[in-house]
Amino acid sequence: MSDARAPRSAASALMATADETEASFYEAMQQGDADRMMTIWADDDEIACVHPGGPRMVGTTAVRAGFEAIFANGPVHATVEHVRRYETAVCAVHHVTEKIQALTEKGWETAFVMATNVYVRGANGWRMVAHHASPGLPDDLPDITEPRTMLH
Predict the structure, then answer these.
(1) How far apart are CA 116 and CA 86, in angstroms?
(2) From the CB of residue 34, how many other CB atoms can be counted at a distance below 10 Å?
(3) Does any domain span residue 5?
(4) Distance of alpha carbon 53 from alpha carbon 100, whole angstroms
(5) Which of 19, 110, 141, 151 yields a CA-CA distance of 20 to 30 A from 45?
(6) pLDDT tens for residues 1-16?
(7) Is 98 helix (H, G, I), strand (E, B) or coil?
(8) What angle (nearest 5°) sits at the alpha carbon of residue 118, between those of residues 125 and 130?
């Protein structure tokens, strides 16, 4: 197990956009790579992560431990199906639908998870500060949105 506070390596190169950071997050999940996963997160005591049905993990040590526990079972086959974005110059909130595929006794099964990823831009580029995922859904459901009104 690596130290969550270890200096960032070359693998944690400057991530120029929140989208780039998000892509790296899901690549780390698909590779089951806790070291790579932690290069995506801000180096801050207040980062937080909630996996579906799990407790809130706060701080780099707790977040790392949570991902190491998940990756002990192998990589997570997660892809993003839908993204809704709210972004400013220094903060980005992405509401995503994650498509999770797992090999079970019945073969490959799919579940959908609703997640919110929060990123901040700092001296080291865009880094994740929060990931909150809700328990899976059996099917991919459409968003429920309010009709947009047009201002004249």
Answers:
(1) 11
(2) 21
(3) no
(4) 15
(5) 19
(6) 444 444 444 345 678 9
(7) strand
(8) 105
- 22-49 pLDDT, tens digit each: 999 999 999 999 999 999 999 999 999 9
Give alpha helix (H) positions in 14-72: 18-31, 34-40, 60-71
For 48, the domain range is 14-133
Flag whether 144 is in a domain.
no
Q: Look up residue 121 and give its two tokens.
A: 């831009």
In a domain, 9, yes or no: no
Strand-pair partners of 133: 115
pLDDT of residue 2: 45
Please report whether residue 152 resides in a domain: no
Non-local CB neighbours of 13 within 8 Å, separated by 6+ positions? 125
User: Which residue reads 């580029």 in tokens?
Assistant: 125
CA-to-CA distance for 98 and 71, rounded, in angstroms?
17
- If you ran DSSP here, which 8-state letter would residue 150 be given? P
Q: Is the sign of the CA dihedral 53, 59, 62, 68 positive or negative?
A: positive
